[in-house]
Amino acid sequence: MSKPNPVATIAMDSLQDGGADKLGTTMDQQNMDRLGKTQELRRNFKFLSVLGFTAVLMCTWEAILFTASYILPNGGLAGMVWMVSEFSPRSWQRFLSYISGWLCVLGWQVNIASGCYLVALQLQGIIALNDASYVAKPWHGTLMVIANATVCVVFNTFFAKKLPLVEGLMLVIHVFGFFAILIPLWVLSPIQPANEVFGQFTDVYGWPSQGLACLVGIVGPMYSLLGPDSAVHMSEEIRDASRVLPLAMMWTLIINGTTGFIMVVTFAFCIPDQLISGVPNYGFTYIDVFYNSTGSTAAASVMTALITLLCFCSTISAAATSSRQMFAFARDRGLPFSSFLCRVRPGWEIPFNAVCVSFVITCLLSLINLGSAVAFNAIVSLTVGAILSSYIISISCVALRKIRKDRPLPHARWSLGKAGLPMNIIAVLFLLVVYVFTFFPIVNHPTLSYMNWSSPMYAGTVTFAVVYFFVYGRKVYSGPVVLVKEEH
């Protein structure tokens, strides 16, 4: 394949008219041509906005705080479809890419609901902190989820052209908010002994061993590291995507990994013994820690509101990712009603129908909370399990392609080189372990109310996808790889 003309690329980048914004750089156009796709969405994301998008969506240091309530009892203080379609064995390309697409749809759709639900719970925690007489009702949470989802839709439709600017502002809040939370904890919070922080393991729920308890509690940390691939599903809206996208993903992991590690160590030093095995007063352990550290309801409320705001910003990004992923998979005829889901309305240049369907799915999922809060909590596990499944399939296909060496990998502007294969193998082995424990209940010998209902939800979706594939999907879905042009 001929190399792009750098002069033409620079000239294209300098243009400001709508056509240039939509087509992107010369390299973007060549990549879309290679994939056999027509550019339908506007490329208005650049490096900083993509970095803000992925960093805030992952919200690593924030997630460490609001998932601590799930982690502490078990352990204590101590674009996937395309990748699968192109890199898997030829005989399995269509089916594996199809299943991977469904798992991505499942994971990212429930991710919106789980994000909105976490925002709702934190809002209820703020109310309880300021009003001791407040009693949270299931319908309160459901209405808050629907309200949060509504605002997400507004940002992803009417304000879609301003979304890159919003993501950039979110990145600023994400970084400075980290210090706004960290410094008060360092200065004001009572400190736990280091031997307890690094040597005290807890098994509140009666697992056979502390090691098993720690593995059961791994879902929380994994949730905080989920989503570096989110921008992949936005690649059709990123200028110079083949360079900007991997660069932003790597910097996201550096920024979020560093801040997340600092926050988890800091937070572990600030948690009193009674909160490790006890039930928090305000729904989340970190709210109790904020209040104990500052001794002020107002200060704890402001700090909690900052975490809630960033969690909500993450949900806006998740809604964008989910709708684009659904749009892309529907464009390949992988979903029921694909022609409706992949429609882009003239003048909007966004997958409006997919955004609206994502909103409806979130609202329907929120109704589960009316019957059982425990069942709705399983959505967090379902998010992790479904997305990790797509990771395992896609990374395994890439690793197998490298091992077999039957076909060379396509040219890439960003590569891990010789370190790629060992990292692929280690990643798959680790993800397989995490995947298994994603579906474990948080307590040993659970009653019906403490069962992890993510496993039947997951199994039901996969079963439906397989049945749909053999009944109808295989007739219309060929897999994206059939459209990809070979490099010469």
From TrEMBL:
The chain crosses the membrane at residues 44-64, 140-159, 166-187, 207-226, 247-269, 298-321, 350-368, 374-400, 421-443, 455-473. Keywords: Membrane, Transmembrane, Transmembrane helix, Transport. One of its GO terms (cellular component) is membrane. Its main location: membrane. It comes from the Eukaryota. It is a multi-pass membrane protein. It is found in: Membrane. The keyword Transport applies. The keyword Glycoprotein does not apply. GO terms for molecular function: transmembrane transporter activity. This is GABA permease. It comes from Extremus antarcticus.
